[in-house]
């Protein structure tokens, strides 16, 4: 098998953060496409192959990789759980977003997993001015600790791809939105969020094509729906992975561009 390729006939996917905000929405959209093993710090009740583990402990991560082809690494330190505890949130971001990502990559390397797809964040480039177009090769420019820790995950992914031959793809996920809410309009969000919206269907779409892409050793790409006034280059994901948005956000609501899956 070529480096950076995936054996589609046996695609066993370990999803970290499976019971979280993204994981709980993506699994129903992807369940017919992949055989999931779910892991979270709390039980994932609707998955038969479900595990409770702390990603900040390597010994708890290592056994999860047995028989896995692809890892979808969605686990994050979420502000939703630390609203009144900013100091604890800062520590959790470093522990989960950096140390936890290192453990996932190291465990995947040892188990000879074919690919790790990391949920990074569009916040890795939020330090640029609002009117600044961000090209594919522009460096990361976070404005908050969260974006900095997600960028650290990208750096670790590049290291493991370059030094260990592990295929690692990182999605800089935009502002998630529900495409079924036809009243959702871009002007209801901040200018930055409103030009970087992505539906949960398009997030699932992105993780599916990243899991199945052929011969891609490493890459970092924005994961967005079609936003007419988007401030960053989204063309690389189309050429490298074949990603095409399902939805378009307009001032009048959400348009469906094509059927998926």
Task: Please render the helix and strand layout as text.
Elements: E1 12-16, H1 23-30, E2 35-40, E3 50-52, H2 58-61, E4 70-73, H3 86-111, E5 115-121, H4 145-164, E6 167-173, E7 175-177, H5 191-194, E8 197-199, H6 200-212, E9 218-223, H7 235-241, E10 247-250, E11 253-256
Parallel strand pairs: 1-2, 1-4, 2-3, 4-5, 5-6, 6-9, 7-8
Antiparallel strand pairs: 10-11
Helix pairs in contact: 1-6, 3-4
What does this structure look like?
The protein is of the alpha/beta class. The protein has a single domain (8-173, 198-223, 233-246), classed as Rossmann fold. Helices cover 31% and strands 20% of the residues. The chain is built from 7 helices and 11 strands. A 7-stranded parallel beta sheet has the order 3-2-1-4-5-6-9, sandwiched between helices. β10 and β11 (253-256) form a beta hairpin. The protein is globular. It starts with 11 loop residues before the first strand and ends in a 5-residue tail after the last strand. The relative contact order is 0.14. The mean pLDDT is 91.
């Amino acid at each position: 098998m070529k480096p950076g390729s995936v054996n589609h006939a046996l695609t066993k996917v370990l999803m970290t953060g499976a019971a979280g905000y993204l994981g709980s929405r993506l699994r129903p959209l992807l369940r017919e496409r992949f055989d999931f093993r779910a892991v979270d710090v709390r039980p994932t009740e609707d998955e038969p192959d479900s595990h409770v583990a702390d990603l900040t402990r390597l010994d708890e991560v290592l056994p999860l990789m047995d028989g896995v082809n692809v890892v979808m690494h969605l686990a994050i330190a979420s502000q939703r759980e630390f609203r009144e505890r900013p100091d604890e949130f800062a520590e959790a971001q470093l522990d989960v977003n950096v140390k936890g990502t290192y453990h996932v990559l190291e465990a995947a390397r040892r188990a000879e997993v074919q690919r790790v797809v990391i949920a990074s964040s569009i916040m890795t480039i939020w330090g640029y001015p609002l009117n600044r177009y961000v090209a594919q090769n522009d460096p990361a420019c976070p404005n908050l600790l969260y974006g900095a820790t997600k960028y650290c995950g990208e750096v670790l992914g590049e290291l493991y791809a370059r030094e260990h031959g592990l295929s690692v793809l990182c999605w800089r996920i935009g502002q998630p939105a529900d495409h079924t809410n036809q009243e959702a309009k871009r002007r209801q969000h901040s200018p930055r969020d409103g030009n970087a919206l992505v539906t949960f269907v398009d997030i699932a779409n992105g993780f599916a094509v990243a899991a199945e892409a052929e011969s891609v050793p490493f890459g970092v790409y924005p994961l967005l729906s079609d936003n007419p006034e988007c401030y960053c280059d989204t063309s690389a994901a189309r050429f490298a992975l074949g990603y095409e948005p399902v939805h378009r956000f307009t001032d009048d609501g959400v348009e469906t561009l094509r059927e998926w899956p």
